């Protein structure tokens, strides 16, 4: 009979240890962010047809989103949309996903485009604690870092600055190098009623209890140094910021106060119509952008073109939202009730019109991407062709 030799005890120990390590590794992987992440990439930048919008426009595609109105509508010829757990860049003409990045174990606090990157901030605990930057052209990850922003932080950006803001403080992040540039908190007992970042810098509107004024302060977006500070009477009215692109514009009640970004000098004010029935000044959409020497505003059903130097109104027209900028053509595309109208940037003269057969909500931002007119509100993106 053949004698059976049992393995030494140390072999059993090694085998058991190996199995334990394998089981632990599998469990760790299943509970890690790697297992919870779904991502795809694109081969390169979008190739968008150069055709003009059609003579008549209808809905080409639509998608729900959570933060499209807080940043650029078009990113390298594609459209950014976000959902509860992630983001996607879509083909502007077809609406198909070019790439996506989603985390089933986290929720999106906000996402925005900054230059050649898309930066998203996620919440895995009680606060917004993780930021990731992805190449806009491909979806390839550029960097990931831990952050410490309060839940409910608003994420916005300019060409070189990522801003996370809450009533209790703001933080700016270098989108390329992923380091924190500067932080700022309000005066003790006060809070930030509004914040904005744009080509002029970072604007902070500080309100203190029982004070008859708010403090409007412009800081350099890179260094955080104070450019100027102005005390603005409110008369107890709600205060909102339209934006900080070339001009700083602050809405107090029904008046838009316009400030020079260089000195803080107040330029001619703009009086708006009363808010729509059922809408409060605290939640109405307000939009601003700039191109060349023109600052474009949208508020309460009207688009305004302001001279970036004097702040004076060059022209105004009824509009559903902020016009699509076409600087090379010297014109803007304005979505009006029932039509998409090309208007001269200089004086607002009508240059062309395409009827629109679609339900377009008010308060969004428009962009022209090849033959597609893309329009984004706070919760929906619509493409017209």
Please state the CA-atom Rg, rounded to the nearest Å.
Answer: 25 Å
Task: Enter the CATH topology name.
Answer: Methylamine Dehydrogenase, Chain H
Overall pLDDT confidence: 90
Low-confidence stretches: 24-30
Commentary on this structure:
The protein has two helices and 33 strands. By secondary structure, the chain is mostly beta strands. The protein has one domain: Methylamine Dehydrogenase, Chain H. It starts with 8 loop residues before the first helix and ends with a strand.
SSE blueprint:
Elements: H1 9-30, H2 33-36, E1 37-40, E2 57-64, E3 74-75, E4 78-82, E5 86-91, E6 97-103, E7 107-114, E8 117-123, E9 128-135, E10 141-149, E11 154-157, E12 162-166, E13 169-173, E14 180-184, E15 191-198, E16 201-207, E17 213-219, E18 226-233, E19 239-243, E20 248-252, E21 255-259, E22 266-271, E23 286-291, E24 294-299, E25 302-307, E26 313-318, E27 324-326, E28 331-336, E29 339-344, E30 350-357, E31 365-369, E32 372-376, E33 380-384
Parallel strand pairs: 2-30
Antiparallel strand pairs: 1-6, 2-33, 3-4, 4-5, 5-6, 7-8, 8-9, 9-10, 11-12, 12-13, 13-14, 15-16, 16-17, 17-18, 19-20, 20-21, 21-22, 23-24, 24-25, 25-26, 27-28, 28-29, 29-30, 31-32, 32-33
């Amino acid at each position: 009979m053949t004698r059976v030799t049992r393995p030494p005890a140390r072999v059993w120990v090694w085998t058991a240890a190996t199995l334990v390590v394998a089981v632990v590794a599998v469990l760790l992987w299943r509970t890690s962010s790697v297992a919870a992440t779904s991502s795809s990439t694109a081969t390169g930048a979008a190739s968008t047809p150069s055709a003009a919008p059609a003579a008549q426009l209808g809905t080409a595609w639509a998608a729900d989103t959570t933060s499209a109105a807080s940043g650029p509508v078009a990113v390298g010829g594609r459209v950014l949309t976000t959902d509860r757990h992630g983001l996607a860049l879509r083909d502007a003409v077809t609406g198909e996903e070019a790439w996506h990045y989603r985390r089933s174990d986290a929720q999106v606090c906000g996402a925005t485009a900054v230059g050649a990157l898309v930066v998203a901030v996620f919440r895995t605990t009680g606060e917004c604690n993780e930021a990731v930057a992805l190449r806009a052209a491909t979806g390839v990850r550029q960097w990931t870092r831990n952050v410490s922003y309060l839940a409910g932080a608003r994420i916005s950006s300019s060409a070189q600055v990522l801003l996370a803001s809450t009533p209790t403080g703001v933080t700016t992040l270098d989108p390329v190098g992923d380091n924190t540039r500067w932080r700022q908190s309000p005066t003790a007992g006060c809070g930030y009623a509004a914040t904005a970042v744009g080509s002029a810098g970072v604007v902070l509107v500080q309100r203190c209890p029982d004070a008859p004024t708010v403090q409007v302060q412009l800081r350099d977006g890179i260094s955080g140094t104070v450019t100027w500070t102005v005390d603005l009477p409110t008369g107890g009215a709600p205060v909102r910021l339209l934006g900080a692109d070339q001009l700083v514009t602050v809405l107090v009640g029904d008046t838009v106060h316009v400030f020079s970004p260089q000195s803080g000098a107040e330029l001619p004010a703009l009086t708006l119509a009363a808010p729509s029935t059922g809408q409060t000044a605290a939640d109405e959409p307000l939009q601003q952008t700039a191109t060349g020497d023109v600052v474009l505003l949208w508020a309460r059903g009207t688009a305004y073109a302001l001279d970036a130097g004097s702040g004076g109104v060059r022209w105004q027209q009824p509009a559903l939202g902020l016009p699509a900028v076409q600087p090379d053509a010297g014109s803007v595309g304005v979505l009006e009730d029932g039509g998409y109208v090309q208007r001269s940037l200089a004086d607002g003269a009508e240059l062309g019109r395409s009827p629109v057969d679609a339900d377009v909500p008010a308060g969004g931002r428009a962009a022209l991407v090849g033959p597609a007119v893309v329009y984004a509100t706070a919760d929906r993106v619509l493409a017209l062709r």
